[in-house]
DNA sequence: TATACTTATTGTAACAATTACAAACTAAGA
DNA sequence: TCTTAGTTTGTAATTGTTACAATAAGTATA
């Protein structure tokens, strides 16, 4: 699982002309295999032994590169530092009120809602669902025509 | 509208033994009447003329007080500083998988999801729904007992 | 392989948001 | 009014993040 993701991610990078350096490889790998949502500092510390001379700046630089390539999502919870999450295929549904069409859309980072809900209600959270309703482009266009 | 919210908020504070100082009054009022989601600095600047000697620390202190009293929500978007939002009555449901109990919980700030979804899919968004599932404290306790 | 060119990494300094702290002050009840 | 605990203020300290310049390392070409 990790390997597939990693390979895909490296391909994505390569295809956008980003060099694959050992540091980048390691940072990506760490984020992918990490089940939590590591902070930049978590990543830095985790790779310290492997890359004793790596700079914090490198971690930040590359997190930005990954973010811009759409590989990684930056999550900001209440606490002081950002967390980073490899973007996988979790997705929600966008539903057309008029024709019922369903479109997937991806949006990571609602973990915070689960967190807050758990905190506020004392529940042990297992999952959540979300749907967004509206009018699809086609129906929108027809509506204006008829009118 | 603003007045009702403000009065309620002040009552809430009073009932939890928090003193109503002119600064607190002004900060609360500003957040409530503000349609945007001001940062601490926005608030500080907005009240500068009214309270020339107010410290930034006071703004932060009181935002924490309000947050802890459940009056205000701290929103962290990507940008560097937190934004603060008066909590009104939008709410979601937390549902117990075991006994079906439903608990309301409040969580403003999912407008961004609607925004993003609209942007990604071209839909005209009208609404969204979200539910969170898990185990309520009572059921959690019973589960451990049985075991 | 050698060379040149471009991009990445490092280390450090700078920055900006937030918090800690101690001293001065003040709201609110007796 | 008096008292006292809670608040405000100003400033220093902290922390996450970024900017920058020098050094290093990939990559393409011959």
UniProtKB/TrEMBL annotation, chains A, B:
Transmembrane segments: none annotated. Pfam families: FUR. Keywords: DNA-binding, Repressor, Transcription, Transcription regulation, Zinc. Signal peptide: none annotated. Belongs to the Fur family. PANTHER family: PEROXIDE-RESPONSIVE REPRESSOR PERR (PTHR33202:SF8), ZINC UPTAKE REGULATION PROTEIN (PTHR33202). This is Peroxide-responsive transcriptional repressor PerR. It comes from Psychrobacillus mangrovi.
